[in-house]
Amino acid sequence: MLTVDLKQKTIIITGASSGIGATLAQKAGQRGAKVVLAARTESKLDVLAKTMSDSGSKALAVVTDITDPSQCRDLVRQTVETFGGVDILILNAGVSMWAAFEEIEDVSFFKDLMDVNYMGAVYCVQSALPHLKKNRGLIAQMSTAQALMGFPHHAGYAASKHALQGFLTSLEIEMQESVRFLHIYLGWIRDTNLRRNAFSLQGQPMGEQKRSHNSESIGLEVCTDAILEAIAVGKRKIYLPAKLGFIPFLNAVYPSFLQRRVSKAVQTQT
After folding, report:
1. Residue 185 annotated as catalytic
2. CATH of 10-245, one of 3.40.50.720, 2.30.39.10, 3.40.50.450, 3.40.50.280
């Protein structure tokens, strides 16, 4: 199995202004990587870049709306001009939803889900791919259980994640190992803004929610340590928590059982 030393590797992280992206960026910088921070919120990026630079890490903040292909091209251009290339692209930016489909009156926000979760990733990959091929680099996608099966209250989100899954697994075959891939399937992760920023029934961010994560949720530190370890040792897939790895088998063999379990799990979080 190929091992990867992050020291002096150039990593682009989308959705880097908070949560998983920001924590990954800081930890990668501590391991000696040159980190490019991409997100829409300039103020948050600047604070994170300064924090990393003050601690001795190399960081470049590039304000980027990944739904705009020209901004994705500019992100890669600035990365190459500053650090000389691209070794790792981490597709972390994403937006979710939490609403029963039949109760939604205006489904136009489904397009936003596709634009961010799918087309945004496509634009980033298209821009970075020549540089990744040159360095036999890595594309890491921050995926979810919703990419592996349908989920109630997540119809549009699951559709966008299925689309990204299909794109990247197809591209993986096309690349014939000239570019490596890491598929990261996540369950409930604490201390992120995914639920807060998710589209609600009215197509607006849900905001703060009074709920507690279940006992199987994973902390941000544990999650990001596992991701960096997977990159370092050259894994192709990881599941956090590990039991998500049973979803493809159960969905093929015992779909009704799996659907009941998933429905119950979602109900406890509603």
Report:
1. no
2. 3.40.50.720
